[in-house]
Structures are given as C-alpha cells and as structure tokens.
Amino acid sequence: RKFYESNRILIFSSILILIIFLGSFSFYLENREKKIILLSDKYIQAKIYIENGNKNEAIKILKEIVYADNATYSTLALFMLLNQNFIEEHKQLLIMFDHLLENNKFEKEIKDLLIYKKALINSNYISESELLKALKPLINEESMWKPHALLLLGDFFVSKKEYIKAKEFYKKIFSISNLQQEVYNQAQSRLTFISNE
To answer: pTM for this structure?
Structure first.
C-alpha cells in the first residue's frame, strides 16, 4: 500500500499511456485495412472502366493508385497502365517508376522487376553508361532478373551494331546457375544471329 501511495501518479500515468498506445495502434491498423480495401475497390473499378471502354476514367484511377504508396496495388496499377499502353510518354512512366521505388518497400525480386522494367522502357532513350548504371543492381547480384538484364544489354548493343559487346553479355547468361531453358534459347539464338551478321 505504501508503494501504491508513493507511486500512484506513475502507475496511473503508465496505464494511461498504455491505453493511448493500444488505442492508437488499433486505430492505425483499422485505417490501414480500410485504405487497402479502398485501393482494391478502385483497382477493380479501373478494370471495369477498361472493359467498358472508358479509358480516361481508368487512367485517372490507376494513376491515383500508383501514387497511393501501397506496394501491392500501386505496382499492379502501374503494370496495368503499361500493359494497356495507356501512357506513351516515357518520362511520365519514369516518374511513376521512381515514385514507386522511392516510396514503397518491396521484396527483392519485385524491386528487381521494377528496376528491369524501368530500364527496358528507358533503353531507347539513354546512353550505354546510363543503361549499365540502371541495370547494375541486377547484373552484379544473383537475381531471377539477371539473365533478362543481360539479354537487354546484349540487345542494346546489337541495336548499336556493337556485336563484340553484345556477345560478351549474351555469353555471361550461360554462366548463370539454374538458367531457364527459354532464356538459354533466346541467348543462343541471338548469338547465332550475330555470327551470321
């Protein structure tokens, strides 16, 4: 009782802080859940607009989702914009990719996919050094997107008629362990093409 009397304010303060913390945390979780449900509803609405031929409304909603900073739905919205060819201006797409990469936390493979797609879109507009820098995170690490990045670099150099550099990147693909047969075949056919040039 003496302990309670001398520490009453501290005990009540601790209980009050704990109640406020638990209330705030449950409020945060509830709001986050509502935000995810709202984004999923918007994503479905955008798909309905696409099916009904209402392209402008779909674009508006999908852009809104991209900037909502939800790793799952923002990425899905950007990929839908890409797949439907709704945004042709490559600078606008790059801004969206940069926003996604800077404002969301992704699993490594999803982040690598975004890096690869961004480099693919940008490959017609940038220099060799810029493309190498963009793909560096993929070609310097083990990633499922590494062979695709090497194919992209090889294709880039073929388009510039720099066949020696292209061969170098295509050949690096064969040293990757657990390489998919399809990627192996693509690299092999490109090397055959170069040798016939």
So the answer is: 0.77
